[in-house]
User: Which sequence fits this backbone?
């Protein structure tokens, strides 16, 4: 499984990379901004994207819409990563067409399984 | 020689300044001076307050107002006395015969002034009438003057009270507005900080979890202990952030309650099961009494309230103590009461206990974990149920925490006794719109 993690926080990205890679056995690419994420997504065609919601500049929602607008990336499932634990926020992201939402802080030992479950539905 | 100054004049001046009654509309005073002039058949009448620039006056058009103001020596005599001060002919009165306002404009010949005495005995001014000719002020007219002075005084005091009320109202409105603004800023701040805390917590919590799991390689025994200390505390920090967000969302009504008829006893029993291991550690036993009854509530949220009460009761119970839970009816409400035999809570603290970040004792922070948010969360939950929450406690005698929530309204059941099948069919369609049915068919 090829994963792309887009998050502006280096440390969060690193933890996610170890969780999905070393614990979850996935191949993980990383991007620290929305636009870098779009480039990598076009090039590498990951099986899913773990996308942080709150990022400076192009935020999660804007990145998501840009991914959907591009034929090459439109079909890639997106799982949002958000610190906003509000149900309304989760519903809003799902209404945008997100495959699922993972809340910060996530459990590093179960993150890969959690995402596999989301992708299977 | 100066006329005598009343003993309390400086006091009276201060009162008048402070009262700010002088800028109020003057119709009632204008009416009173006109009445005084008419009754006394004098061309000039005025109310003078112990503030030189302020007067209400009724004067014949040919008498200049500026000149009347100079009659201050009469005023000073009148305000100093307890009764009506009368000068029937200034020319025949040695105190005033050479007075500038007698010899020159406005050529005062006669004067009668009644002091304006406040309810607490202060002389605040005079109501007086004047004439440019000698004038006899008989007893009836003097009495009228006293009564009109009393009316003027009542007007002044009324204005003073209205003014005070207005001030108080304006003050309380501005206090309420600023309190509201502070509360809003506090909520915004809490929400922002809590969200911002979750990002670093994600890295800390995640890294520690990975380290503790051994995915990053086996750790030496002592390092494992240190990592588990850090991990335990990151969990605590996370719980705190979640509690802060929880109380914030609950208090601002952003969390929807799922209110359905539900068994109160079942909620209590589940909460007791949750707390029992904690209680067992301290040898505390939990007993429960009361009827089975249904409340209208959110099962999970009410369970959170009961569990919070129980965990506090266990936390503050002496070793081998007993915590009792009772259920009872209070009017249309059902009450849950959790009683401990701990050291109790002082009256001052009881009032603050349901506010955020309050603890029974600040020294507790070191020995008993928790941020003092639990009861604030409970209060918000109970209030969203339309209920009330409280505590009764005496120092040294333990505490009883209680909450009351509305009892579930029984759905009306329709009982059909089958006698006529055709009638029953016809009635069934009309009567039964999703209502529970008992029948003997």
Assistant:
């Amino acid at each position: 499984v090829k994963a792309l993690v887009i998050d502006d926080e280096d440390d969060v990205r690193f933890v996610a990379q170890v969780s999905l890679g070393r614990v979850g056995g996935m191949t993980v690419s990383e991007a620290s901004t929305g636009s870098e994420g779009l480039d990598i997504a076009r090039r590498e065609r990951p099986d899913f994207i773990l996308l942080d919601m709150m990022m400076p500049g192009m935020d999660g929602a804007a990145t998501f819409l840009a991914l959907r607008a591009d034929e090459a990336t439109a079909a890639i499932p997106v799982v949002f990563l958000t610190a906003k634990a509000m149900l309304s926020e989760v519903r809003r992201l799902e209404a945008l067409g997100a495959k699922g939402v993972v809340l910060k802080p996530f459990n590093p030992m179960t993150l890969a399984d959690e995402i596999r479950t989301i992708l299977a539905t | 020689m100066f006329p005598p100054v009343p003993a309390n004049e400086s006091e009276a001046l201060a009162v008048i300044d402070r009262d700010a009654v002088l800028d109020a509309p003057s119709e009632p005073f204008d009416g009173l001076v006109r009445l005084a002039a008419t009754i006394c058949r004098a061309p000039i009448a005025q109310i003078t307050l112990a503030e030189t620039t302020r007067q209400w006056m009724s004067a014949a058009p040919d008498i200049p107002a500026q000149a009347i103001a100079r009659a201050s020596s009469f005023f000073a005599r009148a305000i100093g006395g307890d009764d009506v001060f009368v000068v029937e002919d200034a020319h025949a009165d040695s105190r005033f015969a050479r007075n500038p306002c007698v010899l020159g404009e406005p050529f005062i010949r006669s004067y009668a002034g009644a002091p304006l005495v406040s309810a607490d005995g202060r002389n605040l001014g005079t109501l007086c009438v004047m004439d440019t000719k000698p004038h006899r002020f008989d007893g009836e007219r003097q009495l009228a003057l006293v009564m009109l002075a009393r009316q003027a005084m009542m007007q002044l005091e009324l204005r003073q009270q209205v003014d005070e009320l207005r001030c108080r109202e304006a003050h309380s409105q501005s206090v309420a507005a600023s309190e509201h603004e502070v509360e809003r800023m506090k909520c915004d701040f809490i929400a922002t900080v809590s969200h911002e805390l979750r990002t670093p917590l994600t890295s800390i919590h995640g890294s520690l979890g990975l380290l503790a799991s051994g995915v990053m390689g086996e750790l030496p025994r002592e390092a494992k202990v240190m990592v588990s200390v850090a991990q335990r505390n990151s969990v605590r920090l996370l719980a705190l952030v979640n509690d802060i967000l929880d109380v914030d969302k609950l208090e601002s009504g952003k969390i929807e309650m799922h209110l359905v008829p539900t068994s109160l006893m079942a909620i209590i029993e589940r909460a007791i099961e949750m707390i029992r291991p904690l209680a067992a550690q301290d040898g505390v036993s939990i007993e429960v009494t009361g009827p089975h009854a249904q409340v209208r509530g959110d099962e999970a949220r009410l369970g959170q309230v009961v569990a919070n009460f129980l965990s506090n009761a266990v936390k503050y119970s002496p070793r081998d103590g007993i915590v009792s839970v009772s259920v009872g009816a209070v009017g249309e409400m059902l009450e849950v009461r959790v009683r401990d035999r701990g050291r109790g809570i002082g009256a001052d603290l009881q009032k603050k206990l349901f506010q955020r970040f309050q603890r029974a004792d600040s020294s507790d922070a070191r020995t008993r974990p928790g941020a003092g948010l639990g009861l604030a969360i409970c209060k918000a939950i109970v209030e969203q149920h339309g209920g009330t929450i409280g505590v009764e406690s005496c120092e040294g005698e333990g505490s009883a925490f209680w909450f009351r929530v509305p009892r579930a309204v029984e759905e009306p059941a329709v009982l059909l006794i089958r006698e006529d099948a055709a009638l029953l069919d016809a009635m069934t369609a009309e009567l039964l719109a999703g209502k529970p049915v008992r029948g003997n068919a």
Remarks:
- The CA atoms of residues 212 and 224 of chain B lie 7 Å apart.
- The radius of gyration of chain B is 40 Å.
- Chain B has 13 helices and 14 strands.
- The first strand of chain B starts at residue 44 and ends at 49.
